[in-house]
Each structure stands twice: as structure tokens, then as C-alpha cells.
């Protein structure tokens, strides 16, 4: 099993020195959920150098983007290419994947968890995992589109050999050995949903200006986290958090253990640890 740690801010690079219970082999660096949080070249160079100095492989994580964000990523890819090493790039935008696979052959494209569509909502996950749920129905909600051969052919035509997954509460029913793909499982934070409207960015704005895509960003997501609840839904071993433009679920110990065991059964060869919500 390969172990990676996801770092979203340059200030958190000292996490690489933590005494983990596993042997760290890869650094993930960047943001999946907001183009306002795309790191600058200096931050990427610091992260890349920190990885190389520690003998770690490097993965750059990127979000879904507008045309402006795409331009930022292209400049960042050229800069990273100039550093001379090979790297993975996690893509959460089909346009970015197309450009990367066409114009940057040195990088290994990885299908991000936002493009690997699966049922992630903790409020309904239990309904797909109950004793009364028909086995055929339960299996559907534990899989993704990669079970379709034509979809895997599309991914492979764009150079994608690895896909990223959240640790689903209802479990995962995929066999990566049979699919001919590699898999990565994220824990203990899973993504429920995300979008361009930012709750934290709307703080203090007039009612008519709230929940709109903001041209400017004051990065309130660095300061504020909201805990959410679902009235009438039995709470499991998780906590729902809203941070920035994204809702996460933080998994408890039993869910994390379930996910790690499940990864081995599914042939998932990489675990990605997130020390804090990846925002």
C-alpha cells in the first residue's frame, strides 16, 4: 500500500515531518474545490522541492475552473514542467484533462474524485446499505461509471490510469484489478458537494449579493468552518462540515478502518491522508 498526505497550504508543509504510523511515499499539494485557491508558482516550487528533498513523489491537485482559472493552471503546468521532474496531476475538470493529456506528456493525468461520480451524501448513504436493501440495488450505489468499458477506454485514450475515490459510507464495490485501473482512497474527509457559490464568501454581504460566484476572494474559508446537521436523519460515524464553497463529511474511526480494509479488498493501492479539511 502506498501512503500519501494532502497539503493545501505552503504553511502546512512541516506536516511532512510528522511521525506518521505509515511510511509516507508521496506528497499531494493543491486544491480541488476552488480556482481562487490555485497555488502560485512559489508555493508549488516550495512543495515540489520539499518532496524531492525527502525522497517523495509529487502530485499536483487542481480544481474545476473557468477560462481564467484554466489560464492560471496552464502557466503553472509550464512552470512545473520547467522544474524537470515527472509528476502526477489530479484533474477535476474535463477541459483541464484534455489540455493536459494533449500538451503536457511529461505529466501523468489522474481522474479526480469530483469527476468520478459516486453517491457521497451521508444523509442517504444508510438507505443504500441497510439490511432490507436488495443486493443488486446496493451494488449500484457502491460503484461509479468506470465499470463501463467505453468509459474506461475514453479515460485510457487520454492517458488516465488512476482514479481518485472518497471513502463511501455505504462501501465501494469495485475491483481495480479487473478494471485495469489504479485507485486512490481519500480519508478522513470526503466531499459531499461543491459549487461556485461560496457560503463563507457571502458572510457580511447584503442579502441580494449572497451566494453568487465572487470575482474577488477574501479567503474566509481559511478562518471559518460550519458544522451542519440533517434533522430527522440518524447520525452515523461522521460529522458534516461546510467550509468555503464545499460540504465535507469527516469520518470517524470506524469508518476510516472500514475504508482501509475495503481498499485492500478492492485492489486500491494508495491511501491519501488529509490532516484537515482540504480547503
Describe the structure.
- Helices cover 27% and strands 23% of the residues.
- With 279 residues, the protein is an alpha/beta fold.
- Helix 3 (94-103) links the parallel strand 4 and strand 5 (107-111).
- The radius of gyration is 19 Å and the shape is globular.
- The mean pLDDT is 89.
Please mark out the parts with pLDDT under 50 across 5 or more consecutive residues, or reply none.
none
Class per helix and strand makeup? alpha/beta
Tally of DSSP helical segments: 8
**What is the approximate shape?**
globular
Strand elements, count: 12
**Largest sheet, described in full?**
8 strands, parallel, barrel
Q: SSE order, as H and E?
A: EEHEHEHEHHHEHEEEEEHE
Report the sheet-strand fraction.
15-25%
The percent of residues in helical segments reads 25-40%
Mean pLDDT reading: 89
Q: Strand order of the main beta sheet, please?
A: 1-2-3-4-5-6-7-12
Q: Oligomeric form of this entry? A: single chain
Radius of gyration: 19 Å
Q: Could you tell me how far the N terminus lies from the C terminus, measured between alpha carbons in angstroms?
A: 26 Å
Write the layout of secondary structure elements.
Elements: E1 2-7, E2 24-30, H1 41-53, E3 57-61, H2 67-82, E4 87-91, H3 94-103, E5 107-111, H4 122-125, H5 135-140, H6 149-157, E6 162-166, H7 176-179, E7 182-187, E8 189-194, E9 226-228, E10 238-243, E11 246-251, H8 253-266, E12 270-273
Parallel strand pairs: 1-2, 1-12, 2-3, 3-4, 4-5, 5-6, 6-7, 7-12
Antiparallel strand pairs: 8-11, 9-10, 10-11
Helix pairs in contact: 2-3
Amino acid at each position: 500500500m502506498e501512503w500519501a498526505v494532502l497539503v493545501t497550504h505552503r504553511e502546512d508543509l512541516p506536516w511532512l515531518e510528522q511521525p506518521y504510523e505509515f511510511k509516507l511515499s508521496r506528497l499531494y499539494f493543491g486544491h480541488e474545490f476552488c480556482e481562487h485557491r490555485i497555488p502560485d508558482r512559489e508555493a508549488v516550487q516550495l512543495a515540489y522541492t520539499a518532496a524531492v528533498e525527502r525522497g517523495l513523489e509529487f502530485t499536483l491537485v487542481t480544481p474545476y475552473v473557468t477560462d481564467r482559472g484554466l489560464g492560471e493552471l496552464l502557466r503553472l503546468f509550464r512552470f512545473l514542467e520547467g522544474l524537470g521532474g515527472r509528476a502526477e496531476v489530479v484533474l477535476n475538470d474535463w477541459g483541464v484533462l484534455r489540455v493536459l493529456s494533449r500538451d503536457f506528456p511529461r505529466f501523468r493525468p489522474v481522474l479526480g474524485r469530483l469527476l468520478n461520480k459516486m453517491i457521497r451524501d451521508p444523509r442517504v448513504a444508510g438507505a443504500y446499505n441497510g439490511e432490507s436493501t436488495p443486493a443488486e440495488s446496493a451494488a449500484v450505489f457502491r460503484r461509479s461509471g468506470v465499470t463501463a468499458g467505453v468509459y474506461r477506454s475514453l479515460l485510457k485514450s487520454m492517458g488516465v490510469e488512476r482514479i481518485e475515490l472518497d471513502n463511501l459510507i455505504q462501501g465501494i464495490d469495485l475491483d481495480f484489478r479487473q478494471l485495469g485501473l489504479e485507485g486512490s482512497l481519500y480519508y478522513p474527509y470526503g466531499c459531499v458537494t461543491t459549487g461556485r457559490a461560496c457560503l463563507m464568501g457571502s458572510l457580511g454581504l447584503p442579502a441580494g449579493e449572497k451566494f453568487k460566484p465572487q470575482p474577488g476572494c477574501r479567503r474566509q474559508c481559511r478562518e471559518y468552518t460550519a458544522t451542519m446537521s440533517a434533522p430527522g436523519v440518524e447520525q452515523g460515524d461522521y460529522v458534516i462540515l461546510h467550509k468555503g464553497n464545499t460540504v465535507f463529511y469527516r469520518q470517524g474511526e470506524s469508518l476510516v478502518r472500514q475504508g482501509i480494509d475495503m481498499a485492500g479488498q478492492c485492489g486500491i493501492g494508495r491511501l491519501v491522508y488529509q490532516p484537515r479539511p482540504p480547503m
